[in-house]
Design goal:
Order of helices and strands: HHHEE
Helix content: 25-40%
Strand order of the largest sheet: 1-2
Distance between the termini: 21 Å
Strand content: 5-15%
Largest sheet: 2 strands, antiparallel
Shape: elongated
Number of domains: 1
Structural class: alpha+beta
């Protein structure tokens, strides 16, 4: 795990730049995010639609909005990692968040249980 307290300002800046680039890359490829995973909350899915055809189209619409998001500010991007944003969609304020996990830290038990 990164210990930011022990990083030099130059190391921290390089880290932030790398994370921001990875987040930009994910958003730019959000329609085919592999090996990444896109998750929508139950609240967002409840707003989408019960009709599967409309639901998929609206999910794609939301992914397009997040994929093209560029409204970063000090309020929603205080660390410079471009990992959070908000927007208005169908009269509702929506929020998105990217969490970066080191795949080397993910451990799956051999018996398949979590």
């Amino acid at each position: 795990m990164m210990n930011f307290a022990e990083m030099t300002p130059e190391q921290r800046a390089a880290y932030v730049e790398k994370v921001a680039a990875l987040n930009d890359q994910l958003r730019a490829n959000i329609n085919s995010p592999a090996p990444n995973i896109v998750v929508m909350t139950q609240g967002i899915l409840a707003m989408v639609d019960s009709n599967p055809i409309i639901a998929v189209a609206r999910q794609m619409e939301l992914m397009f909005i997040v994929g093209n998001y560029a409204n970063f500010s000090e309020d929603n991007n205080p660390h410079g990692e471009r990992d959070f944003g908000d927007f208005e969609w169908r009269g509702v304020r929506c929020y998105w968040k990217i969490d970066l996990y080191d795949p080397g830290l993910v451990k799956i038990p051999l018996n398949g249980s979590f």
